[in-house]
Amino acid sequence: MATITAEPTGIAMVEEEHPLPFIRKYIFATDHKIIGIQFLFTCLFFLLIGGLLAVMLRYQLGYPGQAMPGGDLLPETMAPGGIVLPEFYNSLVTMHGTFMVFFAIMPLLVGVYANYLIPLQIGTHDMAFPRLNMWSYWLFFVSGLVMLYSFAVEGGASASGWTQYAPLSAMPEASGVSTGQQLWIISIAIFGFSSLLGSVNYITTVINMRAPGMTWFRLPLATWSLFITAILGLLAIPVLTAALIMLLFDQTIGTTFFLPQTGGQPLLWQHLFWFFGHPEVYILILPAMGFVSDIIANGSRKPIFGYHSMVFAMVAIAFLGFIVWGHHMFQSGMNPALGMSFMVSTLIIAVPSAIKVFNWMGTMWRGNIQFTTPMLFAVGFVMLFAIGGLSGIFMASTPVDIFIHDTYFIVAHIHYVLFGGSLFAIFAAIYYWFPKMFGRMINETMGKIHFALTFIFFNLVFFPMHGLGMGGMMRRIYDPSQYEHMAGMQDTNTLVSIAAFALYGSGLLFLVMFFWSLFRGKKAPANPWNATTLEWQVPSPPLHGNWKEIPEVYHGPYEYSHPDMEKDWLSQNERPDVASPARHGSSTGH
Amino acid sequence: MSEAGKQHPRYMLVFGGLAVLTAIEVTAAFMGFPRSVTILILLGLAVWKALLVALYFMHLKFEPRALAVLAAAPLLPAAIMIVVILMDYV
Amino acid sequence: MDWSLPINASTQGVLIDNLFWIIFWMTAAAFVLVEGGVIWFLWRYRSREGHTATYTHGNTKAEIVWTAVPAVAMIALGIYSGAVWTDIRSPDSFPEDALTISVVAKQFEWNITYPGADRVLGNDDDFRIRNRFEFPMGEPVIVRLESEDVIHSFFIPELRVKQDAVPGMTIPIWFEATQAGEFQIACAELCGLGHYRMRARVVVHDQESFDSWYRDQSGAVQTAAN
Amino acid sequence: MTSHAATMEGGRSPERGLGVPTQKLGMWIFLASEIMFFTGLIGSYIILRFGASNSWAAPGETLNVTVTAVNTFFLICSSVTMVKAFAAIEDGNQKMLKVWLLATAIIGAAFVGIQAYEYTELIHHGFLPSSGLYGSTFYSMTGFHGFHVTVGVICMLWVTLKAFRGGYTQEDHHGVEVIGLYWHFVDLVWIILFTIVYLI
Ligand code: HEA
Ligand code: HEA
Ligand code: CUA
Ligand SMILES: [Cu+2]
């Protein structure tokens, strides 16, 4: 409140005017670019953690009951003699999902790029509420620390899955975790408030602060996707917060919302969680789709294919996202008739998704495709997201879901959409905007090597999981060898684990390369990719306040290879020296 | 954005309305109508009061249409949530 | 490992597997289309000497096509899946006077209660067996699922049966085994540290061996009673 | 520099933004999420009570409706004093601005006080958050509404302080308007809560 009512900070046009003290500039920064970079480093750290947890749980699955190398560094309560305990395994799964979804992917997409890109792409000086923005980052930081800390407390970290199904999550005596469980709830509640502040900021900024001529249908798709995502978050996350509060009360002050003994409803938790949860997974894919659209148009030197339908497809996905949550509950005991309608709405989502996939292909069609690292990752996104989306169709069909629900088929789906989808898009975005953020290029050869390794090992890890799921291997299983029908699966699991270690290795390679380029990479020009959107019209990195004066926008965001131009791109604030491309088609808005 | 001596909505009238409606609510609740009737009356009055606050005190009546739409938008997912979950129980 | 579904031993399994392979081929087509297309474009339109991009903002006809086709495919799939789902789960799909067995899950075991000689649950000739679930093939069986503590999930891969057991609810499911054999109940919902070993033996008898087994068990209860 | 000023003040030319000042727009968007938050709590109550057919005490049996009715009246009064404050500054009337703001803060505080009294009474009579679903839902809903009022009062004092320092002018008083929106929203939520929790 106070922050909103406060007079907006008048910020300097360019550094020289009045340089800020270090602490205001880099720690409690209000500059959207610095905040974006703060998010980037924090999230990559959490990505590293999430990956490490994955590697640990993969070791147990690959070599059940064997001492994990270096595992004896862990305390007795987790892995005595390096052998992972069942209760610790459950924490590993839970925290892996939690860190990846809430502290790595989501803030990498939104926290980093909504902050960094929106003001630059719409052509304004900063966010509408810079100070709110600062709070959003620091609350996120705190929530992350709280979540990390929960490993250290008595009883360990939460062990009821990232979905926190009640009553398991509400009954410490059943899950064996009490403090860690409460810290999970508190951490995510703080996280929710942080992203709420973010959403308010992004939405207000996009609505009210676009540069002259930047009409809705001249916005780059990256900004469109971030705008829609912010709305999703604004409406979905508060519901989770409410549910979390009830869950916390059930544990601490004896309420019984989700505890059946006095008429509470365990399924109510699932309804509330997934009412948030499914929009959440679209929060995790829409920005990825936006970035990929920018990058594919740029890499194909061609206007995006069907700009308007790309926008409407995203709007459709976002809206449908609010009426499909039940597809996570087909086997939960929910009314079967309800399952039917949820199945239909879920299947319908394939349609706008199809539009997007085929329009990306349409953009590449008859393009002039550049094999830059960002483009490779973007194309990788299209190929892998398609696989993940298609596996979603199996589960959307209620009868098939009877068999594959809670099996590794789901795990395969998750990772194809979240890793092959979201994370590939994030890598693409990092490679694409790194020069703008840090004024240096990432070495192309190293980038291509990183892409090749990630692409290969990713598929080696997650494609076989479809097979494991078809074989009936359940999720969240500490020791598959307990079951007859999984007897034949151990060598596949071992192979998957080995590939997973290699995949983590390629992640570390990226880490090295990232920091190497940060200091050693060759200096980047303002517009290394000959791109058309506004952020490339300012120096790399942009100065405090971005623009000496607000640019005028004359046409749509993807004017590549215009026939009347000798250079193959026309940036949004360039007045076309020849006939205005506005005549040439739909995407150039009015 | 505020021109001097601007005409204000009749706030006191709205206030009176709210007070009276509240009084009616409290009495209606204990009139011993059939339960369904009571619920309908009370909900109707509550919505009426809510609208008075939103339209006059929060000035939605005098804001650009777009803002009113934006403010009302969440009611759709909100309604979907409650109605659909209720369908699971009845 | 072999990349196929486990052997199928139930009537609903046939429906589910068919649907699975139908979707498999639909998505396989989309898969080939997308992956093939992308790879082909990458090669065909790669940047090279004298090659330039074509300036176009899209093609409405094409977009209508690739909106309509998936739409039709999905609606068809939805209708067919709906029909199958109704056959398996809708309340009126439940067979009359089928053998009704109560399964109560709790950390980390399955307690199976049989209706006894009179074949009605809830009176003193019922008998209860822990972690052992035996029933006849060739006749539908109704299972009334309950849970004492947290959510578990009743999963028998070979029968294509899965249903969560929710505390505070009694959830009926039915299925009919088509072949005798020994399988396992697997708990498919994270339910605590013993989740990974919460399994039980499933024995599907042919009619006569079930009858004799059932008689012995009920007999045992009778003698225990008096 | 002028274009800069325009951007940062948020007073955008209508053809671009909504033609609504940025601070006000931001508050409305924040309220949108608040709607969803309370839907989570109130929705759960509706579902648990009317969907899952649980036994529930009749209105007035457990809760003291009279006291709360009075309290409701207070909250409505505080909404009026709030709009009065806003009207005052729109007319550039600094004195009345301060008076009305102060009144609002005080009445708001009174509301919280009475609610605290209500709670102690109820707890005294053994009606606790742990008394079944009724207790659970009652305390979560009214509790989080009370929490919102408390936050509101704090911000109100902050704004009042600024008003006393002459921080608002007839031309620029976004602060007053924005906190007003929040205040009225909290009032609006109470209108719903009072009806469905105390009277139905
Ligand atoms: C980025 C995240 C993301 C995305 C985008 C999706 C997208 C989709 N998801 Fe996924 N989903 C998750 C993340 C995501 N999901 C997660 C994390 C879980 C597990 C949660 C948990 O339990 O832990 C999950 C679980 C999950 C379930 C529950 C499974 C179960 O627990 O039993 C279901 C069931 O319907 C489902 C369906 C779908 C569908 C239909 C889509 C659709 O949106 C996909 C649409 C895309 C395509 C269809 C491909 C592109 C289109 C074409 C190539 C055109 C041609 C295609 C056709 C004609 C079919 N998902
Ligand atoms: C958002 C995404 C995400 C990502 C990226 C991953 C990544 C991985 N996941 Fe994922 N996983 C989930 C989301 C994700 N997961 C979710 C939601 C669940 C469900 C949880 C639940 O059931 O509750 C799950 C569950 C899950 C399971 C099922 C466990 C079970 O049910 O028992 C398994 C098993 O193999 C697994 C494995 C892996 C592996 C090997 C990776 C590997 O890809 C990891 C490789 C490592 C990296 C990608 C990081 C490399 C580091 C960097 C790139 C950072 C560089 C740093 C700087 C530059 C500073 N995961
Ligand atoms: Cu019982 Cu898992
Ligand atoms: Cu979903």
Give a brief outline of the structure.
The complex is a heterotetramer of chains A (590), B (90), C (226) and D (200). Helix content of chain A is 61%, strand content 0%.
CA-atom Rg of chain B in angstroms: 17 Å
Name the biggest interface.
Answer: A-C, 106 and 88 residues
Structural class of chain B, please? mainly alpha
Structural class of chain A: mainly alpha
Mean pLDDT of chain B: 88
**What is the averaged pLDDT score of chain A?**
91
User: Helix coverage percent of residues of chain B?
Assistant: over 70%
Shape of chain B: flat
H/E series of chain A: HHHHHHHHHHHHHHHHHH
Number of strands of chain B: 0
Rg of chain A computed from alpha carbons, rounded to a whole number of angstroms: 24 Å
Instruction: Supply the number of helical segments of chain A.
Output: 18
Largest sheet of chain A: none
Major β-sheet profile of chain B: none
Gap between N and C termini of chain B, in Å?
Answer: 51 Å
Indicate the low-confidence ranges of chain B by residue numbers: none
Report the order of strands and helices of chain B.
Answer: HHHH
Question: Can you walk me through this structure?
Answer:
The complex is a heterotetramer of chains A (590), B (90), C (226) and D (200). Chain A is 61% helix and 0% strand. Chain A is globular, with a radius of gyration of 24 Å. Chain A has helices at 2-5, 22-27, 32-62, 86-122, 130-149, 172-175, 179-208, 221-252, 266-283, 286-300, 307-320, 336-348, 350-364, 373-396, 398-404, 408-438, 444-470, 490-520. Chain A starts with a helix and ends in a 70-residue tail after the last helix. Chain C is of the alpha+beta class. The N and C termini of chain C lie far apart (53 Å). Chain D is mainly alpha-helical. The longest helix of chain D is centred in the last third of the chain and has 33 residues, at 132-164. Residues 1-15 of chain D have low confidence and may be disordered. Chains in contact: A-B, A-C, A-D, B-D. Chains A and C meet through helix 4, helix 12, helix 13, helix 14 and helix 15 of A and helix 1, helix 2, strand 7 and strand 9 of C. The structure holds heme-A (HEA) (2 copies), dinuclear copper ion and copper (II) ion. One heme-A binds at residues 44-45, 47-48, 51, 54, 57-58, 93-94, 96-97, 100-101, 105, 161-162, 411, 414-415, 418-419, 423, 461, 475-477, 500, 503-504, 507, 510-511, 514 of chain A.
